[in-house]
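ENTRY TYPE: paired fold submission
RECORD: A
CONTENT: sequence, then structure tokens
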Amino acid sequence: MILGIDFGLKNIGLALSAGELVEPLGHLKSLSLDKTISRINQLCQDHQIEKIVIGLPQGSLKLRIEQFTTQLKKVINLPIIFQDETLTSQEAVKKSLHQPLKKRQQSQHAIAAALILQAYLDSRF
């Protein structure tokens, strides 16, 4: 099982893959770094995660994600791969337009994580 992560300052989108299919999992509120990492660690245990794919943008958030990943590696002993996440947020907005506003805002992060994870899987084949 692979966990996809779309890291954000307020929300962290999550998605799962057990092969070629990707499923949005939901999102976590970005709490303190320790709490966020603890929740991700628990998810990894609950879903028997073998690898983590984290979206990496080209903008100002890149350094923050790299710092987050460094801390994550100290707690979670799994391979962590960066995947370019260019345009995933815009695509996630498009895919969630049919949903009510509150649900749309919540699901966009999980959809972005699913798109990141799907891009990683597609790049392997």
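RECORD: B
CONTENT: sequence, then structure tokens
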Amino acid sequence: MQAQFNSIMQTQFESIRNLFGVQPGDYLVSLTDTPHEVLENPGASGSILFLTENKRCIMKTVQKKEKALLTELFQEYYNNLVQNPKTLLPKYFDCYPCKNRKITLSVMNNIFPTSIQLHQKFDLKGSTYKRKVSKKETSKKSPTYKDLDFMKKHPEGIFLENKTYDTLFETMEKDCKLLESFKIIDYSLLLGVYFVRSDSTALDRNDANDFPSGATLAWTKNGDRLALYMGIIDILQKYDAKKKMEHCLKSVITDGKAVSVQNPKIYSERFLEFIKTKVFKKINTS
């Protein structure tokens, strides 16, 4: 029996694809070309991730409550995309419940480039409790590191031009304000790092336009140039009774402020503070 998928809000999602210049033909090819590559999911959600054949889109299984939340927040989410074009939130291109199977697939943009191999990937929540990559994950060809790993690998942080830094956090604050308004937590910043010095054509790459679309130029403390790719992911988890209980239980065994699960306001504030002060810093031009 073949799976039958139908969009939950065809017209609304089509408007998002139009907003970001996704051509109908290209989108159809993304969905129908096979095989799709199954991606490793470093999170604890149990969702399955697929990379489309042309590597432009990510397909992810979502739970019933996540589908309901996406429907609930859609209008405000869409308004944010229009008013905040540099948003780091996922660009949801559609959401498809399967008629004859109990799964729903969301389709979103792939924030990572496909023409260069990233050297590091991080999933950052702003939490320190058990936010360290497992031995199993580190044995993989391209592991996704976590908050404590970032602080070890980049103890001085990553440096951005002042204007880039200010623009980034103006955008992130708007994104987090929207998520907080819908009582959403557990999201993270997915950050890909490309070390320019290892590129044989590095001398010819002097600005973001010399890299695949979406690059943000940055530097290490030692002055090594980096190209960054980033986005906020996993935005469909609400602070419900189950999450409140999880926070209470974990707070018994460790510092309550350190655990990942927090109420939406505290989660947002901690997330932004960590990214602002531990991950990114302004270049000192004085």
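NOTES ON RECORD B: DSSP finds eight helices and 14 strands in the chain. The two ends are 67 Å apart (CA to CA).
STATUS: closed
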